[in-house]
Amino acid sequence: MIVIDARAMPPPEPFEKVIAALRDLEEGDEVLLILNQEPIPLYRFLNANDYDYDARSGADGCWEIRIRER
Fold first, then answer.
1. Of 44, 42, 38, 43, which is closest to residue 63 (Cα–Cα)?
2. Architecture of the domain made up of 2-69
3. Rounded mean pLDDT for each run of 10 residues along the chain, 70 residues in total
4. 28: left (phi > 0), else alpha (psi -120 to 50), else beta?
5. Where are the domains of the chain?
């Protein structure tokens, strides 16, 4: 699993890190992205490029998005 804790990163750095991690993703692996807000634009990119994801908001208000290839 590739973990990207982007809570302290300014935009567009989280998106750029996710794209770079997806390029290195091995079959069966996933990216865990942790953010302070829900990444709606990222969902559009993932849907358009055949990635699956699960998004959850935690009790602390942070979002965890698990991304994997379809």
1. 38
2. 2-Layer Sandwich (3.30)
3. 96 96 94 96 96 94 96
4. left
5. 2-69
| pTM for the predicted model, two decimal places | 0.93
Task: Residue 33: count other Cβ atoms within 10 Å of its Cβ.
Answer: 24
Q: How many helices (H) and strands (E) does the chain have?
A: 2, 4
Looking at residue 58, what is its pLDDT? 85
**CA 53 → CA 2, 22, 46, 63, distances in Å?**
14, 12, 8, 12
Check if the beta carbon of residue 27 is closer than 8 Å to that of residue 69.
yes
Residue 3 DSSP class? E
Contacts 24+ apart (CB under 8 A), 38-43: 38/63, 39/14, 39/15, 39/63, 39/65, 41/15, 42/15, 42/18
> Tokens for 34?
């942790």
